Fold this sequence. Notes:
This protein is α/β, with parallel strands linked by helices. It has helices spanning about 40-45, 70-75, 90-100, 105-120, 140-150, 170-180, 195-200, 220, 240-250, 275-285, 300-315; strands at about 1-10, 15-25, 30-35, 55-60, 65, 75-80, 155-160, 185-190, 205-210, 210-215, 230-235, 255-260, 265-270, 290-295. It folds into two domains: about 1-220, P-loop containing nucleotide triphosphate hydrolases (Rossmann fold), CATH 3.40.50.300; about 230-295, Alpha-Beta Plaits (2-Layer Sandwich), CATH 3.30.70.
Amino acid sequence: MIEIRNLTKWYGRVLAVDDLTFDVPDGKVTGFLGPNGAGKSTTLKILTCYLPASSGTVTVDGLDVLSDSLDVRRLIGYMPEHVPLPGDMRVREYLTYRAGLRDIHARDRRSAVDRAAQRCWLTAPTDMMNRRIDQLSRGYRQRVGLADVLLHDPKVLVLDEPTIGLDPAQIRDMRSLITELGSDHSVILSSHILAEVEQTCAQLVIIAGGKLAAKGSPQELRQQVAAGSKVIVEVKTDEPDALAGDLKSLAGVADVTTDTSGNWQRFELRVTEDVRSHVGELLTTKGLPLRELRREAGSLEDYFVQITYRQNQQTPDLVTSV
């Protein structure tokens, strides 16, 4: 649905996006991540036709965002991080007005507004449709912003920090809604909350210094965490130093640290692969009582920090990304 090819954007002598290429497929939610100043906002503004690119192409359903700007805008629903809402309008009045701007026929506007409001919990458990917008909490304003972008049932949804201001129950409902929307729309979700992204997105695109730093599923990226996986072993032994040496000699074990807890010895193995079966065989051969054997995989946060730090270290000092 969305194809970004060799996208580059300069602000004068400042390079914001540097030869960026990735796709957003149908039927999936794609997480778009990066540290502050990585070029995320610039990329999203180009995608949503707010800014022209310096070079490269961006197409939405085969339409170029520069030459077919009006047609592309009809395909996109964009919810910015800070949704600009007129405080003196009531929710229904505002959504009806926005439906008119989106070329929804007058006879269809009420049904479109009601449908979007129900999906965004603006009618239950408390009906907010006749409330003035300046009387709404931050969470309800987020809901109004999301309802706005759903009015015309766009093929593409671009959501920038959609859960800001929501309480834990609302965040969970929002995740479910975004997952549901991903089955019928192409969704780009930009967020700084990695746990939220991991639970919602099927694909992640990480940029740093204006460049593509990594791409893949959350599971694939977690597996690439350098020295991020550990195997924890808790066993009863009278010869902990000898056992530590045996554990370190196993293939896939990079290092072993020990800690005594009562009569039990705890070993923490830094590994490059899952070695639990080999550890189990070793302990069975020695006849040692085992209390715990588990693996701690590297987190998505670990990978994000590693990959963005590495990318930023490679970015020339004379070129600054925004």
